[in-house]
Amino acid sequence: VDVNATTTGLAIRGYDPVAYFTAGEPKRGNWKISAQHNGATYRFANEENKKKFLADPKAYVPAFGGYCAFGTAMGFKFDGDPNIWKIVDNKLYLNLSKPIQTRWEGDQSNFITTAKTNWLKIKDAEPASLQK
Length: 132
Fold this sequence. Notes:
Elements: H1 19-22, E1 30-37, E2 40-44, H2 47-55, H3 57-60, H4 69-73, E3 81-88, E4 91-95, H5 98-106, H6 108-122
Antiparallel strand pairs: 1-2, 3-4
């Protein structure tokens, strides 16, 4: 479960992961323009974005599988909202909510470092199992 996907396997709730980098904003992907990566389906706003993604998926997939970056720093897997995002050092990060993102941005570099360490331990865990 290292990718936050819907029950149908859709990543980032159907938003185009490349658009964050090319358009500077979230854009809904077209169901007719999609690709599989790491067991999840990604949708794209256009064929050009799909080509970019297929050429280098790791450059575009969100950090921590699209789970909330702050939640990952805390050792949990919460849903990342595709509309609450930030690109840091050419990596896309999603957060659960605006207040959570504000808190994350308050110590962003330390939270990213902690989240990277935690991710190695929790990436294969079911989200619910981490909340016990």
